[in-house]
Backbone:
């Protein structure tokens, strides 16, 4: 412990007593590193203390101290989040799960694994691969994000068009409640209907209902090596037509991604990957069905791309070429970030609306006079239009925020949601209210009240705080490039 | 309205005012038909009124009358349930959803359908098949059970080993809350993380949190026609070994069912299907992967059955022969019911424990000196051991109940659950408490209290009532053959 000054709250001693001094950080130079996630727009305060518990019992001890003293607790994994859901509020305890990083069990005969929340997504993927198994959810940050965070926001990724999202893999959870009690819910069985589905209530609740300390997750047999297809199109909306024809044809590719010319060029600038810089948009798709099934799926995909007006279609089962194309897709956002500050949208629309949505984004960009790179998981309708702007230019900044909002508006108007996989956090609390409406909001609040009557768990996330004055003063709306 | 006597509660007039006289039944001769589901052991009272609303607005009106007067409401579909979850309590309003039976929409480009709760499962299956689509959940009563009931207990069926259960297909719900407000939650998109997963909280909540009045469900592309395999074994536990080797081999059949000699002979007595009456157990499996993939899957299944010690393995792509085998499997329970009164268990165990569980059931049968037919969805570990007994023989009856409980005990001891797909209802409220423990029970109760503070919705289901005196006097534990 450095600099435990008189400003240190009295309950810090209780935390140190419970966890030991090396697990409780209060030096502002150190704790600042835990104050924010990757969200550019999100408010953030400063924690009074950062705790790094090593066990469920230590998490429980933290919650007991917090509830005794009425201190807010912000749970946090690696900080890869994109909506400020793990951002500190002033004076809080930030509870970091990264030391609880054990893969406790891999059980091939039950096709499941048991993990602590600090396990990195990729660590689990690698651990189960040795058993011929597969943990599908693969958010962009899979090589550094933690499963606790994935659970908290119900992460998706590139896999979802065939394999679904995080909640589809959750069998059971251990959760420390606001008052420190330890809840175990769910099961190790494939099926089970004994009681409410509490596990899936906690998944996606962004740390507002409890702190997940263990998860039992279902696994799948490892799929075959993928065959990858790339197709280029003269208009971006044609890629939406591909999505619709894929859906209606009954095809289920293991990946179906889109990026537009802005993204193609930004990626190509970084990677020198010989992408088709003149294409209006690319579709990247995979089949992991193996053998003749993969061949048939890729043949059908090829035909559907051609029918939608593709200039060029190419497929490959060469792993190196496939990996390069995947890397190009995963580079889209980092490459856009080199062009300026970015506002990353996360709208999911019904799949029949993808083409209309892409057209709408083009119109929003034209109205705003800004570049909007359209990239996303088109196969499941979850798109990430990304507004690029100069944060130092007040006018551009205003137009960028307006464009960001216009895209959310467009998504809602098409029957979509303001967040497909990133979460609500502080960033979209107002939009949540708009999307779900007053009845649903009141049900949310009744459940929040039932499980966390003191409002200690991650205040200001998902729901607006009644009083945000000092919070806004510290963090406010800020943008980083 | 016949016989609206002075015993009719005063609020019945309000129901008639809201719904019209043809939608409100109070004649005990008529309402008795709505007092029970198919559960033999479950308590049941007599409703004061049965209402058959035609719209969400009418359901809302019923809940408003009920909450104004503090009248319990028991939601009910076709009454095919197996745990008494739809059984009346004395003086309640039984709310029957069967008149809300419209398939409101089938949207192939979004692979979803929108249905009212009174739609029969098979009706939806048939409606979407015309679009080349598939609604997987297929409980045994699929040709008469309603989707509202399926949602209320999160039904499974034969499909689950490959396709999961009802909750895996729920995108959005409309729910009338205890106070009559109408909640819409969830979405039409594949992905979405805006707010808590309320839809999956209501699914499986057995009508204790709200009345589901509409559901948006995901569909899948119709699979290929199945190839069916049947294998016979000299011991029933060998079929559990097949399950384990299927799981560890990475195979995902579209069906993997087991029935033992008791079931085989009972079915063959009814169907004269030329089943192998001397086999200790049969495995029935299917692949719906089509073409070469199905051939490969069935070849692997054949090898795994042989390695587990099968006496005989046969596969067929003849639809008539496959249908006959499926019919034989579906006949197991009705055929057992011809032998006497039955107590139907519904234990799900981890798949690695299926063989041990089957062995344990054999031991329970021997201890009880009773016949227990073992049948179930072995591929997902959800087994339905069925105790056969003479209900008129008090001693047999006592032993049968003890055997039923011993099987639940065995399931829990193997890391399983007391209900894989039938639900808790009144039948297993005590077992629920045992399975989930006091912390989870208190979280359940907090959520129940938050959403239904008056305790009006389906009282005594899932959770024990504080006062069950008059209820037990009316219904009590009864068995039917």
Residues:
């Amino acid at each position: 412990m450095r600099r435990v000054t008189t400003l240190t709250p009295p309950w810090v001693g209780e935390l140190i007593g419970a966890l030991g001094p090396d697990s409780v950080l209060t030096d502002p130079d150190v704790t600042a590193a835990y104050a924010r996630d990757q969200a550019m727009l999100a408010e953030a305060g400063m924690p009074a203390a950062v705790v790094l518990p090593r066990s469920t019992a230590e998490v429980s001890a933290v919650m007991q101290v917090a509830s005794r003293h009425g201190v807010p607790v912000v749970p946090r994994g690696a900080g890869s989040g994109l909506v400020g859901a793990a951002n500190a509020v002033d004076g809080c305890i930030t509870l970091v799960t990264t030391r609880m990083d054990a893969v406790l069990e891999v059980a091939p005969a039950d096709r499941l694994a048991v993990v602590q929340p600090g396990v990195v997504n990729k660590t689990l993927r690698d651990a189960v691969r040795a058993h011929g198994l597969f943990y599908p959810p693969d958010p962009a940050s899979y090589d550094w994000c933690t499963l606790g965070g994935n659970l908290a926001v119900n992460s998706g990724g590139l896999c979802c068009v065939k394999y679904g999202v995080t909640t589809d893999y959750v069998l059971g959870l251990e959760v420390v409640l606001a008052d420190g009690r330890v809840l175990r819910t769910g099961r190790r069985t494939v099926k089970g209907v004994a009681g409410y589905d509490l596990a899936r209530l906690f998944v996606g609740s962004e740390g507002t209902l409890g702190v997940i300390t263990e998860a039992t997750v279902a696994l799948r047999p490892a799929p075959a090596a993928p065959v990858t297809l790339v197709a280029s199109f003269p208009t971006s909306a044609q890629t939406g037509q591909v999505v619709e024809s894929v859906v209606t044809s009954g095809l289920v590719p293991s990946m179906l991604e889109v990026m537009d010319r802005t993204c193609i060029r930004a990626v190509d600038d970084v990677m020198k990957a010989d992408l088709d810089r003149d294409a209006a948009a690319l579709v990247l798709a995979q089949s992991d069905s193996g053998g003749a099934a993969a061949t048939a799926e890729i043949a059908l995909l090829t035909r559907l791309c051609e029918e939608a007006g593709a200039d060029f279609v190419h497929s490959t089962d060469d792993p190196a070429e496939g990996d390069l194309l995947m890397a190009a897709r995963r580079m889209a956002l980092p490459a856009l970030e080199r062009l300026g500050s970015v506002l990353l949208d996360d709208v999911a629309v019904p799949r029949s609306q993808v083409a209309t949505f892409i057209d709408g984004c083009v119109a929003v960009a034209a109205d705003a006079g800004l570049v909007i790179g359209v990239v996303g998981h088109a196969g499941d309708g979850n798109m990430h239009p990304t507004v690029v702007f100069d944060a130092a230019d007040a006018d551009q900044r205003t137009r960028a925020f307006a464009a960001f909002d216009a895209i959310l508006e467009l998504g809602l108007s098409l029957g979509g949601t303001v967040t497909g996989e990133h979460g609500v956090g502080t960033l979209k609390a107002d939009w949540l209210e708009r999307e779900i409406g007053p009845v649903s909001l009141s049900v949310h609040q009744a459940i929040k009240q039932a499980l966390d009557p003191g409002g200690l768990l991650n205040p200001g996330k998902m729901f607006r705080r009644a009083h945000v004055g000092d919070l806004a003063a510290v963090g406010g709306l800020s943008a980083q490039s």
Summary: Residues 429-451 of chain B form the longest helix (23 residues). Chain B has a mean pLDDT of 94. Residues 24 and 51 of chain B are 5 Å apart (CA to CA).
